[in-house]
Request: fold
Amino acid sequence: MQPKSLSRRRFLQTTAAIGAGGLLIGCTSDSSGPEMQLRHGNVAPEGEMDNWLFIGTDNHIILTTPCAEMGQGVNTSIAQLVVDELDADWETIEVRQAPLSSKFNSGMGMQLTGGSASIHHFYMPMRQIGAGARQLILKAAAAQLNTQVDQLTTNNAQVIFNGQAYPYGQFAADAASLPLPDPVILKSDQQTKLIGQGVTHLDTRKRITGQANYGIDVQVPNMLNATIVQAPVFGTQPESWNEQAALQVTGVKKILKIDHALVVVADKYWQAKKGAAALQATFTKPTLDKPGHNTAEVRQAYIEALNKQGKAQLDQPHIIDVEYSVPWLAHTTMEPMNCTAWVQTDRVDIWLPTQSHTSTADAATAVTGLDREQVYIHNQLLGGAFGRRGESDFVTQAVTVSKMMQQPVKLIWSREEDVQHDFYRPMVISRMQVGLDANYKPVAWHQQMASSSILKRLTKSSLPKFLNWLPLTNFIGDPIVSIGSEHIPYLPTETEPEMDMLLVDTNIPVGLWRAVGHSYTSFFIEGIIDEAANMAQEDPYLYRTKLISHSPREKAVLDKAAQQANWGQAPANHFQGISLTYAFESYIGVVVEISVDNKAVTVHKVTCAVDCGKVINPNGAKAQIEGGINFALSAAMQGEITVEDGRVQQSNFHDYPILRLAQAPVIDVHLLASQEAPTGLGEVSVPPLAPALANALVAAGQPRVRDLPFSKAGFYLA
Reply:
């Protein structure tokens, strides 16, 4: 691969001589996509930096990363890109989280980490920053050392000349005054040292030794702690509560009523928790003007919408006419929702784990009336997110309470509040009519999908630019809910699938959940294809390969997964299921190997083959795939949120269980070599697990499961 040259039209030079601190270089994002404009100057790294890379005169190098670190290792991969191009010292570079600034907007047009898009968006910009800074340092060094640039080399943040090593810091101030390089030259694959190499995450040691700071760990001087009791029925209000009983609990300072909730403020969290229990709060009776009183009611509303729409009438020799469904699902991040806020007259400081600086800032300005420039966000490590921490409901609450108390306040939700007041993955019912020709090949695909809308709520929030970035489908309705349904690789290239998107308003709040619509549309598609293979009496893997010969990348991951899983050669009493997913511009093939004892399912092994373009950190990439598989297995087998009398019935892990260590399968991940630009990775392994498991159960002689979770059909993890 030849070095890439980037032309002047991709860059805009701005220079500011503010001090003698060193070289600062960064980008200004174009909201239309990942293309960035390079900028640089000479500044000291005092206070909050809104620039990306700083090389101090003392050789201290600071990288400010635009992405939220939620365990996916993105900041390690970002650092690899910059350090490799810069030829910096991997062991000494300091990595910081970005403050609130539009300069750190992603290709989504906002300051947001999500959509498995971080490396996809920042791959080229971060390489440009590192390479551009290195070229500036070399040019400044050549002038100081009275030589030519081609006589100099670099290594570990040092310029090498005539056997002598000079630290980058010696040239940083001079470099800041030079014009930006034109063009910026990136290293070839042969020249890179860190890109493509498996390295340990930068924060691993801190995480395993307990030194890492998550949002829930924040301590601020003069800080109070609070917890919340929210209305159990969505949309209702507190009606009565025993304030005196709560105030008698040691440490409890105040009981506050805010929208739909009561907040107990105390010196310590456990004191606030005990005070909340003492409230014995009651709430107003619900007036549910939309379906949402119970799960059966919502499901019936969906069915009525589907019945009114009706099915497609097909005339192919063979017809598959089936109905699939999935339930509401909660996020249940390891770290419950929390936020520490300090509202002052002229500023508001917010410490929290968030995916979205933009949504956080919008919530703060709405509550305080302050300008955006008066909002200071201190993002911490995130104990899981899965889309939930892109929301700002808990931010609004914390800022409101701090404003009322006139002190810094840390608000922490209990696990029960976290489960019962989520923005859930939607419940969906899908009816599909697929026409097969005389050879049992699919030639017509019609789908009627009933769900509630995520898009409707988001258009009223701070996310319109995100919606512009979203890869929209050809279907009418909500492209977030239906995403994935438009890609049916098994159809002839000239045949497009058809869909009727039926949106039903409910009282159940829904939002972005890991893999979003892909998490169930893959279940529908891959289930149908397996049913078609069974009708044709063909091997499910071989049946698929014949249909996707026109898509080499999809065929490659499917073939690799089957090969590595020893497809068709499972041990005695073991059974295999296969699936294929295209999501977030990446391709993944999955084979699940199981055994079944009555209704007890043991998932022995999951084999994955992934094409996500160029891989920056194979260790981190495999870890993300493994995490997604276990996350998806929990959801597929036993994940379900139900509503009765307007209330979410689940409350904690005893009735919303997650996978236990002894139940986790062996996961074998294979990353296909690619010269394509990096694509999404964090969510791509979630969608294919459920259909591969369903298909394995059929192979084991069990009835086809079309209604998740599998526990509804009596199956459970051994």
